[in-house]
Amino acid sequence: MNPEIGHYALVLSLAVALLMTVIPAWGARTGDAALMRVGSTLALVLAGFVGLSFATLVVAYVQSDFSVLNVVENSHSAKPLLYRITGTWGNHEGSMLLWVLVLAIFAALVALFGANLPARLKANVLAVQGSVATAFLLFILFTSNPFTRVIPPPAEGQDLNPILQDIGLAIHPPLLYLGYVGFSITFAFAVAALIEGRIDAAWARWVRPWALTAWAFLTLGIAMGSYWAYYELGWGGWWFWDPVENASLMPWFAGTALIHSAVVMEKRDALKVWTVLLAILAFSLSLLGTFLVRSGVLTSVHTFATDPTRGVFILAILVFFIGGSLALYALRAPMLRQGGIFAPVSREGALVLNNLLLTAASAAVLVGTLYPLALEAYNGAKITVGPPYFNLTVGALMLPVAFAMPFGPLLAWKRGDLAGAAQRLMAAFGAAIVIAALAAYAQGGGPVLAPFGMGLAAFVVIGAMAEVIERAGFGRVPRATAFARLRGLPRSVFGGALAHAGVGVCLFGIIAETSWNAERIAGVKVGGSFEVGGYELTLDRLEPRNGPNYRDLVGVFTVRQGGVEMGTIESAKRLFTARNMPTTESGIRTMWFSQLYVSLGDELPGGGVGVRAYWKPFVTLIWIGSLIMALGGALSLSDRRLRVGAPKPAKKPKAKADGASPVPAE
Amino acid sequence: MTRKGRRLLVISCAAGVLFVAAGLVLFALNDTIVFFRSPSEIAAEGTRPGTRLRLGGLVKDGSVQHTDGTHVRFVVTDGGADMGVTYVGLLPDLFREGQGVIAEGVLAPDGSFTADSVLAKHDETYMPKEVADALKKQGVWKEGEGTP
Amino acid sequence: MLLWIAFSLMTGAAILAVLWPLRTGAAMPAASTAEADLAVYRDQLAEIERDRASGLIAPAEGEAARTEVARRILRASAESGREGASFGDDRRRRIVAVVGLLGVPLLAGGLYLSLGSPLYPPQPLAQRLEGQPNPSDIAILIRKVETHLEANPNDGRGYEVVAPIYARIGRLDDAARAWSNAIRLLGPNAQRETGLGEALTAQAGGVVTVEAKAAFQAALAADPNDPKAQYFLGLAAEQDGQTAEAAQRWSALVAASPPDAPWLGLLREALARIGAPIPDAASGPGAADVAAAQSLTPEQRDAMVRGMVERLEARLAQEGGDIEGWLRLMRAWTVLGQQDKAKTAAGQARTHFASDSGALGRIDALARELGLGS
Fold first, then answer.
1. How far apart are CA A482 and CA A470, in angstroms?
2. Which chains touch C (3 or more CB pairs under 8 A)?
3. Would you call B25 and A523 a contact, using CB atoms and an 8 Å cutoff?
4. Is B87 annotated among the ligand-binding residues?
5. Is residue A418 part of a domain?
6. What chains are in contact with A, requiring at least 3 Cβ pairs below 8 Å?
7. Which of residues 151-180 of A touch C (CB under 8 A)?
8. Per-position DSSP letters for A44-83, written without gaps between them
9. Entry pTM
10. Given this model, what pLDDT does residue C136 score?
């Protein structure tokens, strides 16, 4: 396919996005249904053109069309097909195109599935989405055009950065972008509502599915990125507090707060001003992430290339959208009518606490990420804010969140009964203490806090289940009735419980891995062995192997535990010939939820190699937990039925006479 | 409780949480930041031993010695001054002589530097920004010259 | 052509996206805000009913929830009358249609013409590699030869073809290797040896290395008149400090060359560099040169003047009979601060005019005036 088709499609997209910004907005302003409807067709056509443009670029990559500069700079004909395809977004220009593609797809989805939306809101949402698309299309066309041609074309490309030649690149950025950019829709909803000047419970109902979608994808994207860094970088770490990781974590915190506060807004018509602010913040933080990654102001694994004009351009986009939306917010927020009231101890109160802590965590990450930049601009001092800062702040803010998590769903709307909730959690609490005791016994003299963490994680998981059991009424009503109720429970209840359990699972993995992991660095000759985490690893042989565009030096290790052979691990040092660049291909052996992780270092002067080996107990639970969280989000999303908050009447019911104590519906 | 009173209670709880969070951030920030220094800056400022630092510069040509399997010594230079670094562990893939590097660790009393982590650039066209700035200051490297 | 048709179709689709919803027949009143709100609240009410029926919430709670939702419904219905959605004011529709019809093609077309490269065809690698390659696609030509040589590593012709191309695009290692292979497989000749020598010299940054020198000598052995080998051997001599040998080789080469030989300029430069006499034709500074000199920076002007002086020197070295020229040269070198060159010029002039006492007198007088000694 001719790359020029893609180029023209991109230019045409800009024209379409521009019209999509103006026409539906005008229609909404004048109440002209025809004009408003133009927004929907334009959104579909925009997604079509950006998709065509992206597809053309993919084809250029697949066919190794070296008359396209972007392909020359980031591809190589010897690369396997999969990495030729994924290479499309493994570079600045291509990834920005993917970014806009996701943006356009979300706009098209609103156009297609937003039939239940009021026409005016829908038109304004599409107009806002169109304006974001316009800004980023301008950015792509004028500073990062992926369709620049080279004449005469070279015969071979410069290859993709070897770190990116991995299946992880196929999955991580698209998922992350679906999350990042998904929040553009909630942003558009917020701005559209502010333009109209009216926000009510129904608004939250419309925004929630989009926020949930974006949140679930962002969760998956972050988890995937973490696992990718874990096995590809060869350092054995799964989270580095790298600025770009932080950039994805900030919108995640804000988004998590948003999906919770939107519930309050939908059920109780409360927290409106706050929810709208969160919707704006989540996307603003996504934009900030894009700026940090693409401008190269921060040193990071993800920095593709630095070009000052790009940085300034994105900064301008950032200032326009964040500044503009916040100004609009400041102007309109005071006009919004206040909604329902609630006591501090209530479902709403618990969600407010969750929101406060999550946004505080988001702010702490923001401060830690930007502080070095600010300080350097202020007095030129170069500093690093490292993991200790983030571990301390985020850890301290997330522990109360985890502890409060099982309580929230057990509290009634409007006015809750904390003692009652605690009583219902007794079983979970007991189980947590047992697990903490087991952990303390198992670890012997390990870190003192580890058993507490384990107990907390168990409390979260079991507490999440307790909610479902409690709501079905097991133990209070006949079993058959309870099962019937269980079946009748809305899916969002299961979704929420599942997501909360996922948090617990993830927490368990994090605490187990950080407290109990074992590391061993050794120089090993062939036939030599060493011990890590109770396993004995023997280097059987070192052998060279050839791949399509790389050469491997593979170390084959035999794993034994107590003299019994458990299998082998292969770990490699890989040299990519096109760029003459080595990478580490770590060897990982999963045993239940734990992993043995081996990476090879340099060959040593006296023969043999440097080896770094880790024993990582329960490490996979970190990602499994994240998957469960995202799954919970998906389950809630599949709940088409609308749930409504049933506020507890102000006077305490005499009740319990009928045996079924009032259990709050969600 | 009145409607107003409730709202006030919620807001004051929120303010309390935020206050604690802000305190936490300030406390952590004060305690955990690490300064970036080039060898010349350390020489000029007379940094106290025991200070935790990020040391950045180029790995001096011919200075890398593997003393045994995992102990490494090398010299970081920025053209103006040199600093010896000892490190136990595996060096990153792109650690090469004559290339940019960042070592994080502690300044030893004998004036050498004990690193507990060593970072090299992530690909061959990329130079850690701090290192690039430090080298520019020393006139070793100029913008547009490509990476040394 | 096909490309332009595709562009038109795409543009047409974009325009249609604007025009289609504007057509009057499609008038379908869109949901008003209040209606959409009411739909949500009615759903919420139904939900409460269901929950209450299945015992998920207590009757009292359900009642309270109902009241809240009912209040929302009341509010929404109160607002429902306020907004009136119209369909299609004609003037607005016309404006939008015109913007779509003109704006889309103008904006997209204009922008594309300034950014795009519609005349460059796609160049998938497979297509470039198969069949008769485009003769201007040097990169692919090289690649095809390389692929061929990988399969037939003993085809000396292949190496001979690709070697000069390597040299021209700056792949000097490959050029030297290809020339060595050609020599190994086809036997030495002057062209191959000089090619090798040249590649080695370029690789060494202009220094004629021992290997390069050996190659040039082998070339001369094959063809004693090979000008390139002569030149580079002269260069080797100069770099070894053997100026006399260099001068001798180069002068001989000049003498043996036809007057329009392309390498004469290079040789003159080289001879001038080592201060040897050169035989040549010449020209003084033209009016254009002077005019150009006005607009130059001091450094540039200096370089330009120096170039003119060197040209003068080269001309005089070849045809020494111009006394005015020699005097100008002496003056010029002095002005440029090159006293020794001026002295050399004076000495050379004296040898040229040894038999002309009038000229000798003028030379001596100027030398004294310029402080060059006798």
1. 9
2. A
3. no
4. no
5. no
6. B, C
7. 151-156
8. HHHHHHHHHHHHHHHHHHHTT-TTBHHHHHH--TTS-HHH
9. 0.80
10. 67
What is the distance between the alpha carbons of residues C366 and C346, in angstroms, rounded to a whole number?
A: 9
Chain B CB contacts of A364 below 8 Å: 21, 24-25, 28
Say what the pLDDT of residue C285 is.
Answer: 44
Domain ranges for chain C: 138-270, 287-370
**Mutation site, B122, B130, B137, interface A, largest A CB count within 10 A:** B122
B66 is in an annotated binding site: no
Q: Of B33, B44, B40, B41, whose CA–CA distance to B104 is shortest?
A: B33
The confidence score (pLDDT) of residue C362 equals 81
Structural domain contains residue A642: no
Give dist(CA C247, CA C69) in Å, integer.
Answer: 106
- Cross-chain residue pair A397–B24, CB shorter than 8 Å: yes
Q: Collect the ranges in chain C with pLDDT lower than 70.
A: 24-31, 80-88, 131-136, 278-302, 304-305, 320, 373-374
Q: Which of residues 474-493 of A touch C (CB under 8 A)?
A: 477, 481, 484-485, 488-489
**Residue A390: HSE in the Cβ half-sphere, 13 Å Cα cutoff:** 22
What are the pLDDT digits (tens) for A443-460?
A: 777 777 888 999 999 999
pLDDT per residue over A571-592, tens digit each?
998 888 777 778 888 899 998 8
Q: Which of A341, A579, A584 lies at the smallest CB-CB distance from B124?
A: A579
Shared domain for A157 and A130, answered yes or no, is yes
**A556: contact with C, CB 8 A cutoff:** no
Q: Which amino acid is at A650?
A: A
What's the rounded Cα separation, in Å, for the pair B79 and A552?
A: 35
Q: Which CATH superfamily is domain C138-270 in?
A: Tetratricopeptide repeat domain (1.25.40.10)
What is the distance between the alpha carbons of residues B142 and C95, in angstroms, rounded to a whole number?
A: 55
pLDDT of residue A188: 96
Reading the block at residue A581, the tokens are 């660049």
What per-residue confidence (pLDDT) applies to C300?
Answer: 65
CA separation for the pair A494, A474 (Å, rounded): 16
Same domain, A503 and A571: no
Tally the domains of chain A.
Answer: 4
The answer, yes or no, to whether residue A647 has pLDDT greater than 50, is: no
Q: Measured between beta carbons, which residues in chain A are less than 8 angstroms from residue C57?
A: 646, 662-665
Specify whether the CB–CB gap between B82 and B45 falls below 8 A.
no
A381: chain B residues, CB-CB within 8 Å? 35
Name the domain boundary from A360, A385, A410: A385
Query: Using omega within 30 degrees of 0 as the cis cutoff, is the peptide bond preceding A653 cis?
Result: no
CA dihedral of A377, A378, A379, A382, whole degrees rounded to 10: -50
Indicate if A525 and A504 belong to the same structural domain.
no
pLDDT value of residue A665: 38
How far is residue C227's CA from residue C198's CA, in Å, rounded to a whole number? 13
DSSP H helical ranges for C1-124: 2-19, 33-53, 59-80, 90-98, 104-115
Which candidate from B54, B122, B129 shows the least CB-CB separation from A163? B122
User: Could you read off the pLDDT of C155-197 as tens digits, one per residue?
Assistant: 888 888 888 888 877 788 888 888 988 888 888 888 888 889 8
At residue A349's C-alpha, the angle toward residues A348 and A354, to 5°, is 95
Q: Please give the pLDDT value at position C31.
A: 64
Q: Which domain holds residue A610?
A: 518-616
Q: Dihedral angle at the C-alpha atoms of C116, C122, C125, C127, nearest 10 degrees?
A: -170
Please indicate, yes or no, if residue A369 is contained in any of the structural domains.
yes
Closest CB to C92: pick one of A35, A141, A646.
A35
Q: Which two tokens stand for residue B72?
A: 């490494």
